[in-house]
Write a structure and sequence with these properties.
Largest sheet of chain A: 7 strands, mixed
Strand order of the largest sheet of chain A: 3-7-8-12-11-10-9
Shape of chain A: globular
Number of strands of chain A: 12
Structural class of chain A: alpha+beta
Oligomer: homodimer
Number of helices of chain A: 11
Distance between the termini of chain A: 36 Å
Strand content of chain A: 15-25%
Radius of gyration of chain A: 21 Å
Chain lengths: ~300, ~300
């Protein structure tokens, strides 16, 4: 583990020294340079070039979702440790003086913050399900949505590829079981060829989410046994512990049930999504092709429009 | 006031019905359609066309800043009621069962959330000051930074132009008093001509931030008396109560002192920023030119690249 931690620290330091990441005093929270963002834009453009012909509906959500939406999603059951809820000050002038006094004395002023109705998005697609559900029964063709969202997961780490705030670009498919599985099969092919075109070494493996606690272990086992999640793993700081940069998820009727989404025939909808972790892919590209983007292989720059 | 509230609700309903905004169950929290985002992109492009020739350094921050950065900024003193802090679950399997039980019973499960080291960005430029401060003394020319950030302010409202999560595009100037004031003067001219080119009616007025409590009233008065803040006001839902869509801020040495930023000559740096509220401008454009972007005046579409 020490070797791995050293490798994480070394790569993070390298990225900071090169000005690609800007420290913000918290592990997993960084500003990005203009060069870093051009790569993010390039990944998004390459994703669009492949996905746009399917004519998805574009939805762009803020970094938050309604707290009630979070509750209904079931995420608190499976992964409470990653959830971020937004809290705020709701006191009087006098309470404010107490807050500032606590702050001055170095105490925990934030203990008095009250929960708002806002939570942070744990994944890019969480805004989609309630939005589609609100429209009533799906059409025969189902639905296809394109999202790009800032997500939050509370897992402070010095691994630059494990940020607390990061973006996911996704396509989300809602429809019958066959529509969901066909979508995932298609994107597993597209994903392989895109990551190959990025010039990155990778393997695709069955995976599980980092569910919480004892019940979480059972969830993880059944997720693997049923092949619900596949990931594109790319070595970034370690060959033995490669990083999941893209995931292909089949949720069965989990969100269909949570949000009462119905297929045209009146059954419970099945859903699937493909998610590109744009920060992780950017970090993988910088690792494999070097920190100077102008020196990247012309073919890779071409695919990314750089 | 009732008339104003009705106007807010009517415009919000109109935007939701047209599919431009997607409700998320919380006032001030909405998804955006692809059409809405094309306008946002157009505003950003128009801003870049004017500002890029100054060769700003591009920084892109996540929606959060370090809690310690928030503390050091002084924002908790002036506007605690708007602050969002991020809290998370940090308990055991047993605590998790209690949380789920509370959730099942409709109780306040989020009261047990613990503060993390992350707060939400109250304005786009808050990441800039510590990043520049960390580099040591400024060069003779000072610094100029381009940011575009998701911000959070806890002020739930049915006014679609008062969102809890929204984006600001800013240029931030750090240097001597003269450099800061020259920058602001330049952008006040540029701002007028850009908003004019957007085909929007507007006026520029001296303004103040919505500071908290009794001390806040004094802060607001002195901010106005010293002409520290000007705003471009555009009527959206009301002619009598137009909406601030762009602001031009001179902070004197407020952030220079908070972050110990030094000019080349060793004095405390002065700072200024220009901030474009991209959601508010989008809502103003949709109000004045109509919800169908293809029918907007050709000159306006041209400026926005639409």
């Amino acid at each position: 583990m020490t070797v791995l931690v050293d490798a994480h620290r070394a790569y993070r330091d390298e990225l900071v020294t090169a000005g690609l990441l800007i420290p913000m005093g918290v592990d997993g929270l960084y500003g990005r340079s203009g060069a870093f963002e051009r790569v993010v834009d390039g990944i998004n453009a390459a994703f669009s070039a492949v996905g746009d012909p399917d004519r998805p509906e574009v939805m762009r959500f803020p970094p938050g979702i309604g707290k009630a939406q979070l509750e209904q999603s079931g995420y608190l059951k499976s992964s409470p440790q990653l959830v971020g809820t937004v809290h705020s000050f709701a006191g009087s002038d006098r309470d404010h003086r107490v807050l500032l006094d606590t702050l001055d004395k170095g105490g925990d002023w934030s203990a008095g913050q009250k929960a708002t109705q806002v939570a942070l998005a744990p994944a890019a697609c969480y805004g989609v399900y309630p939005a589609i559900a609100a429209r009533g029964r799906l059409a025969e063709a189902g639905a296809l949505v394109d999202v790009f969202t800032w997500c939050f997961r509370h897992e402070p780490s010095i691994d630059p590829a494990r940020m607390q705030m990061f973006r996911q670009r996704e396509h989300v498919r809602l429809g019958t079981e066959i529509q969901a599985l066909d979508f995932r099969r298609l994107w597993m092919e597209r994903g392989r060829s895109l990551i190959g075109a990025f010039g990155l070494p990778f393997e695709v493996e069955v995976a599980n989410d980092p569910f919480f606690g004892r019940t979480g272990k059972l969830l993880a086992t059944s997720q693997r046994e049923e092949n619900l999640k596949f990931e594109v793993l790319v070595p970034i700081t370690s060959r033995e512990r490669p990083t999941a940069c893209v995931s292909f998820n089949y949720h069965r009727d989990l969100f269909g049930r949570a949000w009462s989404i119905e297929t045209a025939a009146g059954g419970t909808a099945h859903t699937a999504c493909v998610g590109f972790g744009v920060e992780r892919l950017t970090l993988a590209l910088l690792k494999h092709h070097g920190l100077a983007i102008k020196d990247w292989p012309p073919k890779v720059r071409d695919v990314l429009g750089l």
